[in-house]
Amino acid sequence: MADLANDERTETEIPSFPLVEKCPFRHTPEYARLRAEEPVSKVKLEVSGREAWVIATHDLVKQVLTSPAMSSNWRNPGYPHQVALSEEILNTLDLPLLALDPPEHTVRRRLLIPEFTVKRVNALRPRIQEFVDACIDRMLAKGGPVDLVQELAVPVPTLLFAELMGAPAEDATSFREHAEGTMTRGVDFDELDRLQMEMEKHLAALVTEKEQHPTDDLLSRIIAKNKEDGALEHHDLVAIARMLMYGGFDTAANMISLGTVTLLQHPDQLGQLKADPSLAQKAIGELLRYLSINDSASARVATEDTRLGDVTVREGEGVILLYGSANRDEAAFENPDVFDIHRDTRGHVAFGGGVHQCPGASLVKVELEIVFNTLFRRIPELRLAVPFEELPFKNDTLMYGMYECPVTW
Question: Is Endoplasmic reticulum set as a keyword in this record (predicted)?
Answer without folding.
Answer: no
